[in-house]
Amino acid sequence: MPELPEVEALAGFLGERLSGRAVERVYPLSVQVLKTYDPPLTSLEGRTLTGVARHGKFLDIATDDGTHLVVHLARAGWLRWSDKLPEAPPRPGKGPLALRLLLAEPAGSGFDLTEAGTHKRLAVYCVRDPAEVPGIARLGPDPLDAAFTLDVFAGLLAGERRQIKGVLRDQSVIAGVGNAYSDEVLHAARMSPFKIAATLDEEAVGALHEALRGTLRDAVERSRGLVAGELKAEKKTGLRVHGRTGQPCPVCGDTVREVSYRDSSLQYCPTCQTGGRPLADRRLSRLLK
User: Fold this and answer.
1) What are the start-end ranges of the H helices in the chain?
2) Whether the predicted pLDDT of 286 surpasses 50
3) What is the pLDDT of residue 224?
4) Minimal CA–CA distance to 54: which of 82, 35, 73?
5) How far apart are CA 126 and CA 57, in angstroms?
6) What pLDDT, on the 0 to 100 scale, is given for residue 262?
7) 256: Cα separation from own chain's centroid
8) How far apart are CA 61 and CA 130, in angstroms?
9) Of 32, 189, 192, 239, which has the fewest Cβ atoms less than 10 A away?
10) Regarding beta strands 23-28 and 110-115, do their DSSP bridges make them parallel or antiparallel, or are they unpaired?
11) Which residues, in sequence order, are bridge partners of residue 127?
């Protein structure tokens, strides 16, 4: 799933290519992808695009009349840029293509939104205000915002009786962090993913705040300037524990372990994060005694 660093890089990539350009056509090709109907997608046609922003994991493409095309790529969605899209209009079908946006100039340029797999969760909204998108309206603060201070972070964790892994992934608490970067942040902070957030002392909260901002800043810098097609590979090469079950931890050399859930998993290093003790591989598990 694209998370804050990848979406930030996509926003920069698209901003350079879309700003000042007019929309020729928008083709919605998936029944499930479009989540709004007023204003219609056709209202984008002929409009000039003025910029691209990020809200958590949402891409926000703005036009000169105040209409916004907002995209959430979900778990298996992606954006594919092309300087020369096929001349024939795309046809709805069972393939991965969900939406195509064609620019008026340069002729044939634009992007496709695609989604692999059978669980179709990619979402597109055409709105007058990004806050009309429910997922954006409920977002917590952005961890890379200057206003995201240690005191703000400590306040978010106070009273949280959930495991810290789940808190970091909750978009209504902190915007933009998903499964992969929560694993990376917790590894950098040397913290068990099963720690209860409210039990963290001042030192642990400070270490986690530093790890959160540092990990995301580093990932954004690695991704900056890359074309859309290179972002997935860059994300994988920069990960130290997530998706690396069975491989040696790059910090201590211990074997990276995994806890599996029904539809996801987390990865961690026992030596770095849990005092050398493995976590029980079952839902809502605790440290093995």
Assistant:
1) 4-18, 134-137, 150-157, 164-169, 179-188, 202-223, 231-238, 270-273
2) no
3) 84
4) 73
5) 16
6) 76
7) 23
8) 10
9) 32
10) unpaired
11) 68
With cut-offs at 50, 70 and 90, classify the pLDDT of residue 110.
very high
Integer Cα distance of 110 and 24 in angstroms = 9
Other CB atoms within 10 Å distance of the CB of residue 129 = 12
pLDDT above 80: residue 7: yes
Question: Degrees (nearest 5) of the Cα angle 123, 129, 133?
Answer: 35
- The strand pairing partners of 62, in sequence order, are 51, 68
DSSP calls for 141-155: --TTSTT--HHHHHH
- Give the DSSP letter of residue 22: B
In this structure, the number of other CB atoms found within 10 A of the CB of residue 64 comes to: 11
Rg, the chain, Cα only: 20
Residue with tokens 């340029």: 109
The pLDDT, as a whole number, for residue 282 is 60
Find the angle CA(192)-CA(198)-CA(202) to the nearest 5 degrees.
Answer: 80
> Is the distance from CB of 21 to CB of 63 less than 8 angstroms?
no
Mean pLDDT for all residues in the chain = 93
Asked whether the beta carbons of 138 and 172 are under 8 A apart, the reply is yes
CA atoms within 13 A on the CB side of 58: 27
Lookup: tokens for 11: 């926003």
Tell me what the mean pLDDT of segment 94-104 comes to.
92
Here the tokens at position 212 are: 């959160």
How far is Cα 50 from Cα 151, in angstroms, rounded to an integer? Answer: 35
Query: Is this model's pTM higher than 0.85 or not?
Result: yes
Are 199 and 187 contacting, i.e. CB atoms less than 8 angstroms apart? no
